Amino acid sequence: MPLGTLDRTPPPFFRQGHSALTKLVFCSALALFLMVADTRLPVVSTLRVALATALAPIQRGLLMPVEMISGGSDYLRGLTQALQSENAARSQLAQQAERVALAERLATENGRLRALLELAPALAVRSQAAEVQYEAADRYSRKLFINRGSTQGLAVGAPVINEAGVLGQVTRLYPLSAEVTLLTDKDAAIPVINARSQQRGAAYGGLAKGSAMELRFVAANADVRVGDLLQTSGVDGVYPAGLAVAKVMQVERQAEGGFARVTLSPAAMADGVRHVLVLEPLSVQLPPRPAPEPDAVVKPSAKGRKAAGAAP
C-alpha cells in the first residue's frame, strides 16, 4: 500500500482540539471580562444572587453528612462528659445569677435617671439567631456565610455577635444566606471606645497576623495601656454601644513619630464558631436626617438699594 493513501489524522481519542496557548488566552480574557463586569455591570450581582439561591439547597445537602458526623461524634463522647458539662453550666448559671440581679437593679436606676433628666428611652435592639454554614474560600479575606438572608429580614450592615463579642457585620445579602465580613478582614473597620479612659478611636483589621487588629490614628502620648478593653461606641448608628470588640495586646510608642502602633486581639474569635446572633442596625430605628436647606438669598428692598447707592 502506498504511503500517500494512509490516514495520518489521529484517532478521536487522541485529538487535542485547540492548542494550549489558545485555551490560555481565551480563559484569561474570560476571567478579565468577568472581573470587569463584576465591578461595572449591575447584571452580574443579579446573576450572583440567582446562582446563590439555586445552589443553596445543594450546599445544604452537601453539609448534611458533615453535620451528621459531627453530631454523631458528639453523641458518642459519652454520658460522663455530658454530666460534666451540665455541672459546669449549673455553676456558671449560679455565678451569673448575681450579675443578673445587679443588671436588673442598674437598669431600673437607669430608667429612673433618664425619666428625671427627660431623656429619650434607649433603643431596643432586635436580633435573630443564625448558624454558620461555611467559611469563604478566599484566602485573602476573612468572611463567613450564615443560613439567614433577606427572606428572614436581614439588612446589609447588620452586626453579627456571639457570646464573646462582635464578630463582624453582614456585607452581602442573598435570599437564603448572607455573607459576614469579620473584624479581622483587611476591609473591616469599627468605631470603638476605651472602657477605662473613655477615649474614642477606630479599630481596623487586615494585619499580617490573621487574628490581630490595629487601633489606628492614636497619638503617641494617648492614654492606652496593654489590657484595655475596647467596646463599641454606638456613635456610628450601626453597632449598639457596650459590645466587646477587642483587647489591647501591644503598644509601641515611637519618639520620632506622631502616632502609636496599637495591636489588638479580637474579643470574639471566629475559629470554631457555630452559632451567631444577628442584630438589627440602629440606623433602622433612628429618625431620618433632615435634608439640608438651601441658603436663603435676601434681596435688599428699594429703600435699602437707595441707601446703599447714596452711601459714600
What does this structure look like?
Helices cover 32% and strands 24% of the residues. The chain is an alpha+beta fold and 312 residues long. Among the domains are: 20-76, no CATH class; 127-284, Rod shape-determining protein MreC, domain 1 (Thrombin, subunit H). Strands 1-2-5-4-3-12 form a six-stranded antiparallel β-barrel. Strands 6-7-8-11-10-9 form a six-stranded antiparallel β-barrel. Strand 7 (200-204) and strand 8 (213-219) form a beta hairpin. The model is unreliable at 300-312 (pLDDT under 50).
What spatial form do the alpha-carbon principal axes imply?
A: globular
Terminal CA distance? 120 Å
CATH fold node name of the domain at 127-284? Thrombin, subunit H
Structural class, please?
alpha+beta
CATH class of the domain at 127-284, named: Mainly Beta
Main beta-sheet strand count, sense and barrel state: 6 strands, antiparallel, barrel
The H/E string reads HHHEEEEEEEEEEEEH
Number of strands: 12
Gross CATH architecture of the domain at 127-284: Beta Barrel
SS summary, helix count? 4
